[in-house]
Every structure is written in structure tokens, then in C-alpha cells.
Amino acid sequence: MVQYVFTPWKDRGELLQVRRQFFPQQVSQHTITSPSGNAAAAGTAASSSFSCSSSSSSSSRRDKKSAVSRVSMWMQRGGCPHMVESTALLIAAMIADEESMLLTSGKDATDSNSSYAVRASYSAAFSRFVTGLLDSHQDKAHKMSMYSVAKTIGLPATFVELRHQATHEQLPSLTRLRAGAQAGLVWIWDYYWKQLSATDGDDDQVPTVTGRSFAAPHAEDVPQATGSACRDALRRYLDMGKDDLATIARFVRRWGRARVLSVLDAIGDEAGSSQPMDNRLVLGTLKLARQVTEMEQARDNDGSADIVEDADAPRSDLDQASVEMQGDTADAMVTTSQDGEQAGGWNRPEGSWRQKPIGVV
User: Fold this and answer.
1) Per the confidence metrics, is the pTM higher than 0.85?
2) Mean pLDDT highest for which of 108-112, 152-156, 179-183?
3) I want to staple 166 with a disulfide (CB 3.0 to 4.6 A). Which of 29, 111, 123, 173 is the partner?
């Protein structure tokens, strides 16, 4: 079955154009640098391009404003990824900071009103970035702290601390907020924008697993693994044709039970609608989905295994419970009927009805 993905942008080129406007230096460096290049040098160059200073070229500022406006339009349409929205909010705060510095360059540079407004803009953008990202990875069944979720996806703990201070305490200093916004944009580039391909295919890139043994990617190894990363890992596991409960448990911890089951359902639909139908893949997705469900049920039951020794025992228990429930219902109906007869109120008279004049008891 064909699955349609609705995006707020017109085509892939529009999204890549926004990426070029937001990250001109990173895009050019990512184009000419091989994947095995020096990551430290790339990170240094990335952080240096997000400097808040009045020396930024007017053309670059104009391109970023245009990109922010376009993302704002995408947000109105709906379905805009959180990383795209967070990038626009952080860069909008940095543009406001640059324009504020340009306005106060010939005046008192310590204008309290202007500084407070810029700090508030930085704080709102950064808090929305961190909160929305961590909430999207939160497990509704088992609530975890923000630090635990941040460690799972590779988000620095300093981001959570800065978000907490900006939300519950006095606004952080402008110097710290500027540094946090720059670091946040570098992290978003590595986590989301860097993984976008030039085609309409999968956005994320996952390291190829070689050798006979298979292992699921850990959060610290592949922090950017989302969406298609889960799909690629599940496809490789299904192609191996082996049962490994430890690997399945890592899948659930990494991406969550809901996402794993959703991706398995999509893989099964594609395999079932293919010509000829891939029966092996369809059966593999059904088996893996059942294993994931049983594993979650076993974990909910104090970690005990979901093993039934006697196949007739559950049925007999259900029959006994049904009989007891029917008996309780009958007793309740009898009790209600007796109470209704004894209590005052409307009830059906016995015998034939006889007319009485008004006022006669």
C-alpha cells in the first residue's frame, strides 16, 4: 500500500534552499568534505559561523530573514519538523540580537530594555527547542527525567540546565544565552540538517553494519538516528533471519515501542503490496511485532516472562470469572428490585385501576 507523506514545503529543493540560507558555510563544507573527514575541524568551523556580531554581511542576514519567514509559513501550514522550527527561532533571536547591537552601537551599549528583550527572545527560543525535542522522545508509559532523555539522544546536559534556568529562574546572562544558541545550532546541524540528502529518499544516514553478527545502533554511536534509521535497522535485522531478544530490546529502548511497531507495519504493507509478494518479509514483520508486544507485556508484569505452561488454564480462569460476574450481576438486580419495592416512589399498582375523584385519598 502506498503511503503518502505530507510536508509543508513544496518539494525537496525548497527545504534544501532553507538549509543553505540558514547554514551557508556548513553546506559548502559538507559538499566538498568526505564523510570520513575531520569531525573536530568541522565542528570548529560550524561554531565559528554562528557568531553574533555586527560584522555579519547584510546579504547573509537577509537570506536568514527570508528563511525564517519561510519556516514561519511552514509552521502555519502544519507538519513542520521541530528541528526546523527550532532553527528558525534560534536564528531569529540571533538576528534580533545583531540588529539590537547595530542600533545601540552609537548609543549607550548597556540599554537595559533592549538587553532584557534580547535575553527573553533567546530564552524562549532555547526553552522551546529543548522542551519540544525531549518531549517528543518521552515514553508516555514510563516517565523519565529530562536528563535521562537527553542522554539517550545525545543532547548535552548543559542544554537542559540552561533551559531550566531560563524557565524557572532569573533569565541567564546575554553572554551565556549567545553561547547556548550557537551550540544549539551546531547540535541541530549535526542532528538533523546534515543528514538531509539531495533526493526525496531517506533523510537519515546510518552506518553500514558489516560482518555476520548484527547489533542495533546505540544512542552514543548514532545520535542522529531517527525516522529512516529505525527502518534501516529493522530491515537489516529482518534480513538476518535470526531471533535476538537483546537486539529487539535495544530497538525498543532506542526508538520506543510505538515507533518500532509503526515502522514494522509500514514494512509489512510494502512487502505485501509488492509484486511478487515477499512472504518471508511479511511473516518476519508479524513475528517481530508480536515479540515486541510480548516483551513490553512481560516488562509491565514486574519483568516476568510471558510464558503459559497450561494452555487450558487461561480459558478456565476466564470461564470461572464470567460465571462469578454473572452471579454478582443477578444478586445486584434482585437487591435493587427489593429496595425499589420498600422505598417510596412510583411503582406499578397491583390489580385493576379504579378511578377516584380528585381530592379523595
Assistant:
1) no
2) 179-183
3) 123
Domain range list for the chain? 12-195, 228-300
Q: Are 133 and 153 in contact (CB under 8 A)?
A: yes
Whether the predicted pLDDT of 47 surpasses 90: no
